[in-house]
Design brief:
The protein has nine helices and eight strands. It has 277 residues and is α/β, with parallel strands linked by helices. An eight-stranded mixed β-sheet has the order 1-2-4-3-5-8-6-7, with helices on both faces. The termini are far apart.
Length: 277
């Protein structure tokens, strides 16, 4: 596995100054690398336990029961945690929680994504945000994106412009963070590249032409979207196979993915809603 270098930068470098200024007297607390090491000592490896485990993780990160909803229909059960902002403009921060593969634990794909968005919530839960953020654990990504497609289908046409961006985290833990170009908006990809350069980590844009990701569902309705991953060239030997276990995860990779995604969320929050269309 590629050695992943720890990069420690101040919050001010990675978050827009307006957001930092709002919170100098409150508590934006960026999660530490050791928290990600602890996060993968126990992973829910049975599909039937996964949804409840996502909810419990959100609660552990400081969410209240009142802010969590489980949206169930005949194709999926998505779990949504709302962080209310000053406006009804929205950012979706998502990761799928379902997994496939005989004997797989779904550790890389995609408990790493769930852990990441939970830590982003923990960091921002006490922040005064311009936009409302919906943290979504998507069900049935592995079945043609059924969960995210179900969510997007429910958005009324007249409300589409309120959805500023969707930031998807899928399969960290094997490499430095990268953007999956074929399922990402060019402007969001460019923003992530700029952030990665500020973080002084290697920027990668990875083409997975045959792959699907939940960002696809939002792109289909002209909502800017991006998928952040961290895989290596041998990903096909891990994802969807029994090899997808906790020992395949490099926690530093997940930590850097979290820092990149967090900074991108904060930047989208700081900009006009149409900035990435």
């Amino acid at each position: 596995m590629k050695k992943i270098r720890l990069v420690v930068l101040s919050v001010c470098v990675l978050l827009p100054q307006s957001l930092v200024s709002h919170n100098l007297q409150s508590s934006i607390v960026v999660s530490k690398p050791e928290e990600f090491e602890a996060a993968f000592t126990s992973i829910p490896c049975k599909s039937k336990d996964r949804l409840l485990a996502v909810k419990e993780l959100f609660l552990k990160m400081g969410a209240s029961e009142a802010d969590i909803s489980i949206i169930k229909n005949n194709v999926s059960e998505n779990i949504v945690l709302q962080k209310k902002g000053e406006s009804d403009e929205k950012i979706i921060v998502g990761a799928h929680y379902d997994f496939v593969g005989v004997g797989s634990c779904g550790a890389v794909d995609n408990w790493t994504g769930i852990v990441t968005i939970a830590h982003i919530y923990k960091t921002l839960k006490d922040a005064k945000l311009k936009k409302t953020i919906l943290f979504v654990g998507f069900d049935q990504e592995e079945k043609m994106l059924a969960g995210s497609r179900s969510m997007v289908k429910q958005i009324k046409k007249e409300e589409l412009n309120q959805y500023c961006a969707m930031i998807n985290v899928d399969s960290l833990g094997m490499n430095t963070p990268q953007v999956l170009k074929n399922v990402s908006s060019p402007k969001l990809e460019a923003a992530s590249k700029e952030i990665a350069q500020k973080m002084k980590i290697e920027y990668q844009a990875y083409e997975m032409v045959t792959a699907l990701a939940d960002s696809d569902s939002f792109l289909a309705r002209k909502i800017p979207a991006i998928t952040i991953a961290a895989i290596t060239n041998d990903w096909m030997e891990v994802l969807h196979h029994k090899a997808d276990q906790a020992q395949k995860i490099n926690p530093m990779s997940v930590y850097l993915g979290y820092r990149l995604a967090l900074a991108l969320v904060a930047q989208v929050n700081d900009k006009e809603c149409g900035a990435y269309r």
